[in-house]
Amino acid sequence: MKNYHPWWQTGVIYQIYPRSFQDTTGNGVGDLPGIITRLDYLNEVLGVDTLWLSPFYPSPMADFGYDVADYTDVHPLFGTMQDFDRLVAEVHARGMHLVIDLVPNHTSEKHPWFLASRASRKNPRRDWYVWRDPKPDGGPPNNWLSVFGGSAWDLDKATGQYYLHSFLKEQPDLNWRNPEVKAAMFDVVRFWLERDVDGFRIDVAHFIMKDPEMRDNPPNLSGVAAHKSLGAYDSQVHLYDKGHANVHGIFRELRALLDAYSKARPRFSVGEIHVYDWGEWATYYGEALDELHMPFNFSLLKAEWNARDVRSMIDGLEAILPDGAWPNYVLGNHDETRLRSRYGPDQSRVAAMLLLTLRGTPTLYYGDELGMPEATIPPDKQQDPWGLRVPGLGRDGCRTPMPWDATPSGGFSTTSEPWLPIFSTEGCNVEEELSDPSSVLSLYRRLLAVRKSHPALQLGEYQPIDLAPRDCFVFVRKAESQTIMVALNFSADPRALRLPDGFARGRLLLSTFEDRTETDIDETLILHGNEGLLVAICPAPSVLA
Ligand code: GLC
Fold it and tell me: Does ligand 1 come within 6 angstroms of the Cβ of 419?
């Protein structure tokens, strides 16, 4: 079984934000039947094979579905349970896999569990959430902050206690130290496994275990922050409000549950874990690789976009990865500024090549394959509760509807007034990009096809090349019979690239410039500014010997 690689290692994950993908009812919100109508695009046209859906469960939508009111149903906005079953069947019929979002840290304040919990101090569900008495001065029990601004505690006047909410006050945190909570959430996992989903993306996975003594967080004196500024939240070191070591026991149990359902095919978990210490990050694979299959790796979002920093980030990851652990990379999601706007039109093509040629599973965010820019949303159309509470931190700009064609509704809906405005720059839609070989979509299609047809890119080793030209990051991916060189020019100026020593000649597989014509490369080649190249290289006889 040494060379066995399960689907979640060989494939490419594509994240769908269901509200914004395809609306079939004309209410301006995307739905599950809409996703079904686009499966052929995803599978055959684009070439991705694993879909991750952001939440589609019943929810008051205070945080657009990340406030779940019922974990085992479908919100009518998105369709019905029958639609879900059909989606699973259609995904599987195409040989694809479906990963759904599990939100274990908090429920909606409207979830029956919380309604019961807040009803009285004596309610059997009281301890399912985190309740504490006020401090003697009536203030919150400790200094913990909500990611979305303000204190993480809200006073329930009727019962005289505070409850914890790491996010909105409409998202009370569950108490995972209560075994009944774990049992209930594991039942949710079973429910979806029985409905044949292939895996789970676990929302803020490390948040579920906090310091049992609930100590105050220390102030952040060094100014170290996450990959982006989180406002007042950055004033503390978040030592005690998440990531307590007891979380690992939960993930080991979850893994055992997933493994028990893995007879027919492996079931999978990927955790959203934003920690910035590599050592700590790697612990989420589990000491015996018996916890999460992967913690999402957001390091590229944090790296300065230049050849040196990006390479050192990747080398750092490769060095720390536990033996046998599978890497992964993320360049965008529903919480981040669109890739196109982060790196600009030219470097975002280089970024696409990097993401799809590194060792490990890449995750693509819907619309990034079109080069969708971050949308500017007029103040009266803003929706994201985070942005409404902390101006500047809103995430609406990366959540606008998928533009399928150039019509006013973008082919997303029959209404031209969807939940967020259609925002696309000229020519940025599936229909037009498909007929333009120089489009971002054409580049992604070529990259995905080359990745799929080259084991070296899917599974090969990673070897950085030291003697790369200035501002270039060059590495080699190697499987038994194949060696592919990836050369990325992070500067706008041309650079002379010599094939690495020991390699006699190469054949151009793909360039981010669609009009590059070389076929054979003899030792040296000039990389254009902002160009990424894939070259299949043949070892020289001396190396073979
Ligand atoms: C995660 C989600 C984000 C959500 C938050 C609270 O970070 O990705 O969209 O707002 O958790 O559930």
Answer: no
Please give the backbone phi and psi of residue 350, each rounded to the nearest 5 degrees, phi first.
Answer: -65, -40
CA of 148 from ligand 1 middle (Å) equals 10
207 lines ligand 1 (CB under 6 A): no
The CB of 131 under 6 Å from ligand 1? The reply is no
Residue in 59, 203, 228 to alter for ligand 1 test, most ligand atoms within 8 A of Cβ = 203
Residue 241, phi then psi, degrees to nearest 5: -95, 5
Look-up of token digits 């989903």:
197
Q: Which among 109, 154, 198, 203 is annotated as catalytic?
A: 203
The CATH number that domain 460-544 falls under is 2.60.40.1180
Spans of all domains in the chain:
7-104+179-209+245-448, 112-164, 460-544
Our answer to whether residue 272 is catalytic in this structure is: yes
Architecture, CATH, for domain 7-104+179-209+245-448: Alpha-Beta Barrel (3.20)
| CATH class held by domain 112-164 | alpha beta
Could you tell which of 16, 63, 164 is best to mutate to test the pocket of ligand 1, judged by most ligand atoms within 8 Å of the CB?
A: 63
pLDDT by residue, tens only, the chain of 545 residues: 457 899 999 999 999 999 999 999 999 999 999 999 999 999 999 999 999 999 999 999 999 999 999 999 999 999 999 999 999 999 999 999 999 999 999 999 999 999 999 999 999 999 999 999 999 999 999 999 999 999 999 999 999 999 999 999 999 999 999 999 999 999 999 999 999 999 999 999 999 999 999 999 999 998 777 777 888 999 999 999 999 999 999 999 999 999 999 999 999 999 999 987 889 999 999 999 999 999 999 999 989 999 999 999 999 999 999 999 999 999 999 999 999 999 999 999 999 999 999 999 999 999 999 999 999 999 999 999 999 999 999 999 999 999 999 999 999 999 889 999 998 778 999 999 999 999 999 999 999 999 999 999 999 999 999 989 999 999 999 998 899 999 999 999 999 998 887 777 888 999 999 999 887 788 888 999 999 999 998 776 554 43
DSSP 410-459: TTT-SSSS-SS-----TT-SHHHHHT-TTSHHHHHHHHHHHHHH-HHHHH
* Nearest atom within ligand 1 for CA of residue 103: 12
Q: Say yes or no: CB of residue 203 within 6 Å of ligand 1.
A: yes
pTM: 0.97
Beta bridge partners of 278: none
